[in-house]
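User: Sequence in, structure out. Go.
Assistant: Echoing your sequence, followed by the structure tokens.
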Amino acid sequence: MGHDHSHDHTDPPSDPALRVKALESLLVEKGLVDPAAIDEIIETYETKVGPRNGAKVVVRAWTDPDFKSLLLSDANKAIHSMGYTGRQGEHMKVVENTDTRHNLVVCTLCSCYPWTVLGLPPVWYKSAPYRARAVSDPKGVLAEFGTTLPKDMKISVWDSTSEMRFLVLPQRPEGTDGWTTAELEKLVTRNSMIGVEQALTPERLQARESNPTA
């Protein structure tokens, strides 16, 4: 799959990024900012605030066949209809996991990522090992995330670019008939929408809620 970028992602951080880092260091040095608080804020946007938009999109697809059809045929229109618009999310394609195919998203040259529905990209998504191994050894990468697939399951790896970003539509877990929208959204994680994991089963959700630090 082609990967056309208009800039070199091996360059040092941009001047604004360096200025932000310098300002952060200065504030920490003067005791005005707690680095742990900064990390917590970033973690919140990486795993809680941003991905909740994507979870709402996924759950609507699980519960509304017409919306699911639109999402798979014209992701931009479907996602925009829910009010999720903005930079890094203008050109979207949604790929569906099935009983015979599992989808995995990577950006092999940098870290193109659908911020509109997933928030900030995790550090591992931007790392060179993930970007390389997701293509060369996708089953190995999935195993490291605790995701074991049937031997005959086909894996499709999608390479995000500045022109097209991908979102995985995970399968709805069994045993969730009659669940409310809010309950279903708890099953959808950021990692399941990248494809390194599957949506949480009711049992895994219960275990996570009973031991949130695990």
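User: And one key feature?
Assistant: The chain has one domain: 52-210.
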